[in-house]
Design a protein that fits this description.
Enzyme class: oxidoreductase
GO molecular function: oxidoreductase activity
Keywords: NAD, Oxidoreductase
InterPro entries: Ald_DH/histidinol_DH, Ald_DH_C, Ald_DH_CS_CYS, Ald_DH_N, Aldehyde_DH_dom, MeMal-semiAld_DH
CATH superfamily of the largest domain: Aldehyde Dehydrogenase, Chain A, domain 1
CATH topology of the largest domain: Aldehyde Dehydrogenase, Chain A, domain 1
Bound molecules: nicotinamide-adenine-dinucleotide
EC number: 1.2.1.27
Radius of gyration: 25 Å
CATH class of the largest domain: Alpha Beta
Structural class: alpha/beta
Distance between the termini: 73 Å
Strand order of the largest sheet: 15-16-17-14-13-19-20
Length: 495
């Protein structure tokens, strides 16, 4: 069985804590590795490595940083399949979906390759007589990222390229459930030629995270995970004086109007609800069927669900893999039970599907006539369960979205441009889809939700990412012509 430790100074650092966490293949239930969980002293050592590298890295020229980022981009491209294989074997998602994750990760790396443009400041000549004003953005120093299990390669790569491109050194604390892909990414980073200490990985649990949150040498933290931990990270980190962005959970609504293209809406609902076994923060977990679209839409979704192939991620036939752990699978099944008991109509019951072996598989579930008081509506289930809520009108549908505590993504399906325009204006979510169920912004926009889906005010990657990983400075400069120099005690005016 493998042992997975930490990555410090471009080499493996074997853990000494004696505390480990099992890494499991969810398709078989077999433990494939033991992961070392860091002590606070080990976190200190990792941060010290990043701190030692910080001065040199921040002084490294834009030209050199750009060349290294391009080399890293080429290595990620060349190793797409291997990254996908590693993450699929520990996460469980099917290989084609894992390949999609790597493709979206590459977008973020490619954006960071443009750092020369991204870090350009502004310049105003003659802002006042003989005075020029210009701005620059400078790195923060040592920064950290704490990432969830559901995108073990993409979410770290939402953070690392931009942070490092801006001149920071980075400490990553990946999810303990699927650490192999982020460890491999760190190896590729070293292979690209980034100096020792620029990217370090410390594996651990809450002990490591809590130590990073208050560590005096960590300037900023980016977090992605569940809402309770996001809130904890934001509150603790900001109280310790750090810059924090903490992205939390979601319950994404897809509003389907009566004039929508039914086939398009049904396909979209199935793909967005059950892809990656529903373990996506941008998964559609609620369909709001407006007016008389409910019956035909539910029938169309149910018909598509019957043919879904559920199996191991490395089987090319599989469309959906297992859930991340046995406990999580049982928890999701418990929600189906609770929904049925509360009076929802169970159109398709995932618990009926029988699977061979000890993998953490669960069939997909479709619940109709769900009401907002049911736990299947109020909670983030994070599994292959789609609930349908019916409303009479668009206004009622929007009231549901508005009242929901989360605001990550939201989508509308309609042929009416006016309705879509009204939706995009009114909806209380950070990422909006118009006939697009999973509106994850491209790498040159920024990703982030509203309400309990994001603590802090800066979204992830893209322009807001560059802003988050740097601090601004404005210089007001005068090189007077010696012939015009004179004594003047008045407050400087812009004339
Ligand atoms: P999680 O909150 O359990 O874990 C996230 C990270 O926090 C992990 O690295 C974990 O080790 C650490 N952690 C866990 N418990 C902790 C504690 N008590 N104190 C300190 N650190 C702790 O999330 P998860 O189960 O890995 O991921 C799924 C969740 O992430 C879902 O809620 C999903 O919606 C959310 N998510 C959100 C986004 C987004 O962009 N908003 C993206 C992906 C996932």
């Amino acid at each position: 069985m493998d042992r997975i430790s930490h990555w410090v100074d471009n080499a493996v650092l074997t853990g000494t804590s004696g505390r480990t966490s099992p890494v499991t293949d969810p398709a078989t239930g077999r433990v494939t590795a033991q992961l070392d969980l860091a002590t606070t002293a080990e976190v200190d050592a990792v941060v010290a490595s990043a701190k030692a590298a910080a001065v040199g890295w921040s002084q490294t020229s834009v030209a050199t940083r750009t060349r290294l980022m391009f080399r890293f981009r080429e290595l990620v491209e060349a190793n797409r399949d291997e990254i996908a294989r590693r993450l699929s074997s520990e996460h469980g998602k099917v290989l084609s979906d894992a390949g999609g994750e790597v493709a979206r990760a590459l977008e973020a790396v490619e954006y960071a390759c443009g750092l020369a443009e991204l870090l350009k400041g502004d310049y105003t000549e003659q802002a006042s007589s003989g005075v020029d004003v210009y701005s620059m953005r400078q790195p923060l120093g040592v920064v950290a990222g704490i990432t969830p299990f559901n995108f073990p390669a993409m979410v770290p790569l939402w953070m690392i390229p931009n942070a490092v491109a801006c001149g920071n050194t980075f400490v990553l604390k990946p999810s303990e459930k699927d650490p192999s892909a982020p460890m491999f990414v760190a190896e590729l980073f070293a292979e690209a030629g980034f100096p020792a200490g620029v990217l370090n990985v410390v594996n651990g649990d809450a002990e490591a995270v809590d130590h990073l949150l208050t560590h005096p040498d960590v300037a900023a933290l980016s977090f992605v995970g569940s809402t309770p931990i996001a809130r904890h990270v934001y509150e603790t980190g900001t109280r310790a004086g750090k810059r924090v962005q903490a992205l939390g959970g979601a319950k994404n609504h897809m509003v389907v109007l009566p004039d929508a293209d039914l086939d398009l809406a049904a396909d979209a609902a199935v793909n967005a609800a059950y892809g990656s076994a529903g373990e996506r923060c941008m998964a559609i977990s609620v369909v709001v069927a407006v007016g008389d679209v409910g019956d035909p839409l539910v029938d169309a979704i149910a018909a598509r669900v019957d043919t879904l192939v559920i199996g191991p991620g490395d089987d090319p036939e599989s469309q959906m893999g297992p859930l991340i752990t046995r406990e999580h699978r049982d928890r999701v099944a418990g929600y189906v039970e609770a929904g049925a008991a509360a009076g929802a109509r169970v159109v398709v019951d995932g618990r009926d599907r029988v699977f061979d072996g000890d993998g953490f598989f669960l069939g997909v579930t479709l619940l109709d006539h769900v009401t907002p008081d049911m736990t299947v509506y109020t909670d983030e289930i994070f599994g292959p369960v789609l609930v349908v809520v019916r409303t009479e009108t668009y206004v009622e549908a929007m009231a549901l979205v508005e009242a929901n505590p989360w605001g990550n993504g939201a989508a509308i399906f309609t042929r009416d441009g006016g309705a879509a325009r009204r939706f995009q204006h009114e909806v209380t979510a950070g990422m909006v889809g118009v006939n697009v169920p999973i509106p994850v912004p491209v790498g040159y926009y920024s990703f982030g939700g509203w309400k309990d889906s994001l603590f802090g005010d800066t979204h992830m990657y893209g322009p807001e990412g560059i802003h988050f990983w740097t601090r601004g400075k404005v210089v007001t400069s005068r090189w007077p012509d010696p012939s015009t120099s004179a004594i003047d005690l008045g407050f400087p005016r812009n004339d």
